[in-house]
Amino acid sequence: MYSDNVQKMNELAQLLTSASSFPKELEIQGKYDLLEGLRVTSEKMRSCSQTKLLKLIPKVIRNTIKLCRCNGVDSNVVNELKESLLLLDPKTDVSDEFMSTSDGRSTRPQTANTTASPQPRGGSGAATTSIPKKKGGSFVPLILPERLVQIREGQRRIASILFVSMLPSNMIEVMKRIQTAMEDQMNANELVDTVIQDECHYPIICRKQEQEILLSQTRIALRTQNDTIREGGIKYFQFFTKLRYVGDTSLIVCWFLLVFLLVTCKTFNLTFLIFFLFPFFSSVNYLKTTPPK
After folding, report:
1. Where are the domains of the chain?
2. Residues of the chain with pLDDT under 50
């Protein structure tokens, strides 16, 4: 994640640095007026109405394509302008063959406005957009909100390329130093990753194998302990259940014996009752109610 963020920052710094230098190339080729025209049109797009915005988009697309065809424009700047053109109009042809064409054919992009059926001259029919209407008492916008967000994003990205060269020279130098620092940081990250891969890969694998072995042994020990506790608990409850059964059975037998003695014996021995039966009944009752220990 850290390397990805550094890479994105480096790409942005490279883009702004390249965009700050290509106006000089345009001035050498005598095409600096094209850049100035795009700047003026971009400023108009920023504050105009939707009707005017739809009229300015084809002009911006045509001039941006001319700008991409100029010599001395870096590839990263061209790619940024292509992505911005697709945001302005997804039907724009931004193929490499079309962008590299510099012959005499028209540079008008094949957009929805240019491929539509021609409107009659004069009046409001010459406009490439329709007038907003009211439907059911509510205003119907010319551009859908989702589409307007894309257009504004493309306009913003093109404007960042056009106006970055107007920054003070000290800020441009700061951007160049930032780009150099980002490149050094990326090289350092690659070097650290290589060292970690070479020196720490084998110990990490060993530690991972030891972790898996420990986890397996712990799982077996816990399973064995659970089985032992379960078997011990079953034997424990079986023992006390049998002990309770023996106590209840002995108590019933003694009661029958006492009844038998009272019925059959003519002379009842009180000493036998005191020293044998009463202690036996007390012991059985204590055995039934005593704690497990």
Report:
1. 2-116+137-184, 202-289
2. 103-131, 134-135, 137
